[in-house]
């Protein structure tokens, strides 16, 4: 039987965080609790966050190479209404590719998004209004 564990990073950060839910076997969860009880980690989340960071560091070269090969923006990419209006006025379309967070302002209309955004690939999170996400559903990969 697996137990569901919800992680949420409560430390203040420059960017936003996302909640991740994972299922763990009871033995794994017990071992985590033992390490917390013995003082190796302050809580479950601290251990799991550390384990994830260690794995990301271990694979850091692969991540960097893939980001470069796929021409991904690493971090935060933000689009305001003015940004998209400028793209529209220039007769261009965007191919948004982000590893991290892509954000589209709440005042961007679905029509403006459809006119200016050809495709969206986000490895991480996309923050946009429900209406814009619905309009772009077929263009989000």
UniProtKB/TrEMBL annotation:
SUPFAM superfamilies: Ribbon-helix-helix. GO terms for biological process: regulation of DNA-templated transcription. This is CopG family transcriptional regulator.
């Amino acid at each position: 039987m697996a137990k569901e564990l919800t992680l949420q990073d409560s430390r203040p950060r420059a960017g936003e965080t996302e909640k991740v839910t994972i299922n763990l076997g009871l033995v794994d969860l017990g071992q985590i609790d033992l390490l917390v009880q013995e003082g190796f980690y302050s809580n479950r989340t601290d251990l799991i966050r550390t384990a994830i960071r260690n794995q990301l560091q271990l694979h850091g070269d692969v991540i960097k190479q893939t980001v470069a090969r796929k021409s991904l923006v690493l971090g935060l990419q933000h689009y305001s209404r003015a940004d998209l209006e400028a793209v529209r006025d220039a007769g261009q379309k965007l191919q948004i590719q982000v590893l991290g967070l892509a954000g589209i302002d709440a005042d961007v209309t679905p029509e403006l998004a459809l006119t200016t955004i050809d495709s969206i690939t986000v490895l991480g999170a996309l923050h946009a209004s429900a209406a814009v996400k619905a309009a772009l559903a077929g263009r989000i990969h």
